[in-house]
Amino acid sequence: MHEKTAIVTGGVRGVGFAIAGQLVELGYKVVICSRTNLEIRSALKQLNLHGRVAFGLKTDVSQYAQCKRLVTFAFRKLGSIGVLVNNAGIYGPIGYLESNAPEKWSEAIRVNLLGTVYCSQLVTPIMKRNGGGKIINLCGGGVGGKSSLPGFSAYYTSKVAIAGFTEVLSEEVRLANIQVNCIAPGAVNSSLTDYLIDQGIEKAGEAMYKKTLEQKRNGGDSPQFYKLRRIDHNNFIEKL
Questions:
Q1: Pick the CATH number of 5-186+221-239 from 3.40.50.300, 3.30.428.10, 3.30.390.50, 3.40.50.720
Q2: Are 210 and 217 contacting, i.e. CB atoms less than 8 angstroms apart?
Q3: I want to staple 158 with a disulfide (CB 3.0 to 4.6 A). Which of 40, 112, 225, 227 is the partner?
Q4: Pfam families per the record (predicted)?
Q5: Euclidean distance between the first and final Cα of the chain, in Å?
Q6: How many CA atoms lie within 13 A of 86 on its CB side?
Q7: Does residue 155 carry a catalytic annotation?
Q8: Dihedrals φ, ψ of 133, to 5°?
Q9: How, if at all, do strands 178-183 and 237-239 pair?
Q10: Domain ranges of the chain
Q11: Catalytic residue among 155, 156, 209, 226
């Protein structure tokens, strides 16, 4: 059985923070990361209300060297890494492909996809030495749904790629007792929701803008509705 230790990338707000909080409630020690120290300090203050069980490190997951530093930091603080939740992600450029800046498009791939790949690669040897572990990837963006997301090509492409990567990695490490799954939380009200609304109807597109605005007003879930359940036996997030 894996140790009750975990890394949650982007674990300072939204779904990532909710996951980190649930892990702490389940008796885990966790390491979270963000690109800003202010967000890390705020999240740690809440996670450590009943004892110092959470630690944080400023990290840009699009950079392999920083991912390596994060994993080294986590191993030093926690003594092992039993669970990795690859949650960090950005929307990237919004608008049809012809209007997207190439550097912004590639940034979404680096953060969303390569950040997931880098962290997964780095924790795998540690989990193998520990006799197993769990890797949970976030692949939202309508992946597996009835339609794609026009105007969000970088984000959608990165999430489709994460789903494919998850399938391959799960087979590669299966015999090492490492479970790899991906989850799509669905319509969650978070900072990404606010960011999309701030972009306006012209950039986001009328359909997506109106849908997001309606979600914000009435239909979106709170990130806290997504709860890790029985992680010692199952590797998923269940919508309550």
A1: 3.40.50.720
A2: no
A3: 112
A4: adh_short
A5: 26
A6: 34
A7: yes
A8: 175, -175
A9: unpaired
A10: 5-186+221-239
A11: 155
Measured CA to CA, the distance from residue 96 to residue 127 in angstroms comes to 41
The partner residues of 58 in beta bridges, in order of sequence, read 34
Contacts of 213 (CB under 8 A, 6+ apart): 197
Residue pLDDT, tens place only, 97-153: 999 999 999 999 999 999 999 999 999 999 999 999 999 999 876 665 566 778 889
| C-alpha distances out from residue 130 to 2, 4, 176, 233, Å | 7, 12, 10, 17
Reported as a single tens digit per residue, the pLDDT across 18-41 is 899 999 999 999 999 999 999 999
CB-based contacts of 182: which residues, under 8 Å, 6+ apart? 136, 137, 138, 139, 162, 163, 166
The H or E element that residue 180 is part of is strand 178-183
